[in-house]
Write a structure and sequence with these properties.
Length: 242
């Protein structure tokens, strides 16, 4: 474990370690104050100092074919989902790997894979989890402390989550439980087999998530439209009821 009191981005530090051959599998880069955290497709992850968990894990999933790389995202999302499920039954996975309590975001993950040949040479899993923060720039964010009405010990919470991530990765390594991972992910996925709302082509429409392609694309049956649509990141926007 590499602890930094403050840094720009734990994913960036982890990437430097991988590039310079200084990181074994399982290396964790963790900080109390991440000032330049990144989310999916260039979005920012903002976190108050010493209030939350912000860290990156370096994996070496060379056993996983490139075409199956979304399993890493599903495995990580499930571990975080299970962590929050200890505390509340209002937790949901928002595709691809954000975690929500009710209709508010409590965790985000950025996974950066390096491909070599037909396999994945390294995977940097950056995780941000709102634990004790109670002030947010948007009303669509929350924390575990806000949901429970009490503060928590960050070290204890990290150990709980770390155990779940370790177990999830070992499950992934067996290669015999890939479908189990996919099925459990769907079970926790917001909108799966339930009608939810989207913005699509500047129009608000209802739709039902019917599944996930192995590549990670979201499958949706839109109300009033024929067939099943498949979407990548930023190709469709979720609408949350107040």
């Amino acid at each position: 474990m590499i602890y930094l009191p403050s840094c720009h981005s734990t994913n960036d530090i982890a990437a430097e370690l991988v590039l310079n051959g200084l990181a074994e599998e399982g290396t964790v880069v963790i900080t109390d104050n991440q000032v330049g955290g990144r989310g999916q497709r260039g979005t920012k992850w903002l976190s108050e100092p010493s209030q939350n968990l912000t860290f990156s894990v370096i994996l070496r999933p060379k056993f996983l074919p490139v075409a199956e790389q979304f399993l890493i995202s599903q495995m990580v999302a499930l571990a975080i989902y299970d962590y929050f499920s200890f505390y509340t039954n209002q937790v949901k996975i928002k595709w691809p790997n954000d975690i929500y309590i009710s209709s508010k975001k409590v965790s985000g993950t950025l996974i950066e894979n390096a491909v070599q040949g037909y396999g994945i040479s390294s995977s940097i899993v950056g995780i941000g989890i709102n634990i004790n923060q109670t002030r947010f720039e948007t009303a669509r964010s929350t924390s575990l402390a806000e949901a429970l009405g009490t503060t928590l010990n960050l070290q204890s919470e990290f150990e709980k989550l770390g155990g779940l991530l370790d177990a999830g990765y070992l499950r992934l390594k067996t290669m015999k439980q890939n479908q189990v991972i996919r099925d459990l992910y769907l079970k926790g996925l917001h909108g799966y087999q339930n009608s939810v709302k989207f913005n699509y082509l500047n129009e608000r429409v209802a739709g039902v998530v019917t599944g996930i392609e192995n590549s990670g694309r979201l499958l949706v049956k839109l109300e009033g439209k024929e067939g099943i649509y498949d979407f990548g990141l930023k190709e469709i926007e979720w609408v949350w009821d107040e």
